[in-house]
Write a structure and sequence with these properties.
single chain, 397 residues, alpha+beta, Beta-clip-like, Serine Threonine Protein Phosphatase 5, Tetratricopeptide repeat, three-stranded antiparallel sheet, 10 strands, H3K4_H4K5_MeTrfase
């Protein structure tokens, strides 16, 4: 089902014996656990082959990012470490997944100037495009990094594990020189749920698992496969009116969503409190109108409705007013209920609404509900073990 991304030994993987490499006719190579593991268990930790810091301007230019990472791999003499990553040779390149063949060719030609053959430049570019991960570290830096064993992990829209960036030297400055963190973050793979012995470990290549199947398909297209459908997917794009009655609704709802998102972005870019407050209130007004227009037109758990409720609830909660927070609580409940149908129980996507619901319930005087959200939040954070704190004392060679 998923494009196979790696072929190699697990001998160097930490912790030894935790993961097994298996190969099947249906899925090719994949990583499976060798024993039962509980949620929150670290399954894999490894340094990158190479990594580059992502800058905002690069976020929409994937081939430029891939080319920069390839350049680092070449300069560090690590091209040989990519030899067993998919694709292994130029003959297996799938040019049908390229958004821009001309841009790809230009990037490959630039890499040739760094001393590698044209066929190897093209292979290396697609190796990075198919296998590199985008990770964040505790210092709020975003990285694009390539990992030898992490590249074995298959995608699932219902993953049982998560990938995290990890500064191995964060709690031990004396080890910074030996860990290699200066060349990028370590990769930590952590279980999000109980995984039984022999089961495959999967992660999501898609950042937003609450996204519709069409949005996830766009995000996965360059990997060469489509997302699997889940029970929650039909609601995310569902209309409750006939096709002939949609046209006016589509235009009106789309306009409100665009206006709301624009005001939200202006609020986050504002440098003074008054402008931020004004723009947040403007966005809240647009989101509220969107929800009114969506009534009896969109499924209550349509992705636009959940998005609007989350942002409207955020603005109401940030006001700090008891009545506003009380009115925000039903919105937070709906957001959490919708997300829980699409994301893992301990997904980091649940952290913002859980924090928002906890704050709203506390201010509204709903102590029992606040207690419930506090327990749920603590459990999620314990599973995620943000920053891989339980690994911070390990010395990596």
């Amino acid at each position: 089902r998923h494009r196979r991304r790696h072929a190699g030994s697990m001998a160097a993987v930490w912790p030894n014996g935790e993961l097994l490499l298996k190969e099947t006719k249906q899925k090719g190579r994949a990583l499976h656990v060798s024993r039962d593991v509980k949620a929150g268990n670290p399954l894999l930790c490894e340094p990158p082959i190479a990594a580059v810091t992502l800058r905002p301007k690069e976020c929409c230019d994937p081939w430029q990012v891939a080319s920069e990472l390839c350049s680092v791999i070449i300069k560090q003499g690590r091209v040989g470490d990519t030899a067993d990553l998919h694709p292994k040779q130029e003959a297996t390149l799938d040019t049908s997944i390229f958004d821009d063949a001309d841009e790809f060719s230009q990037c490959a030609r630039r890499l040739c100037e760094e001393g590698i053959a044209p066929n190897e430049a093209r292979r290396l570019l697609q190796v990075v495009a198919l296998n590199a991960m985008e990770l964040s570290t505790s210092d709020n830096r975003k990285w694009q990094a390539l990992y030898r064993h992490g590249s074995m992990l298959n995608h699932s829209c219902t993953p049982n594990a998560i990938q995290q960036g990890f500064d191995a030297s964060s709690n031990d400055s004396s080890s910074r020189g030996s860990t290699g963190f200066d060349t990028g973050p370590y990769l930590c793979i952590r279980s999000l749920a109980t995984i039984k012995a022999g089961e495959e470990v999967t992660i999501s290549y898609v950042a937003d698992l609450s996204a519709s199947v069409s949005d996830r398909a766009d995000a996965l297209r360059h990997h060469g496969f489509a997302p699997e459908r889940r029970a929650c997917d039909s609601a995310l794009e569902a209309w409750t009116v006939t096709a002939s009655a949609r046209d006016d609704k589509v235009a009106a709802i789309g306009a409100r969503n665009a206006a709301a998102d624009a005001a939200w972005m202006r609020a986050n870019a504002a440098t003074d409190a008054a402008t931020r407050k004004r723009e947040l209130m403007s966005s809240a007004s647009h989101y509220a109108e969107l929800l009114r227009l969506a009534t009896n037109a969109l499924h209550p758990e349509h992705e636009l409705c959940t998005h609007a409720r989350a942002r409207l609830a955020h603005v109401m909660t940030e006001s700090g007013a008891q009545r506003s927070c009380a009115n925000a609580l039903p919105l937070w409940r709906s957001v959490i209920a919708a997300l829980e149908k699409c994301v893992p129980h301990a997904s980091p996507q649940l952290l913002p609404p859980l924090r928002g619901a906890l704050k709203a319930a506390s201010i509204a005087g709903e102590d029992a509900e606040a207690d419930k959200y506090k327990q749920r939040l603590d459990h999620t954070l314990a599973v995620l073990c943000m920053g891989c704190h339980d690994l911070s004392t390990i010395k990596f060679g």
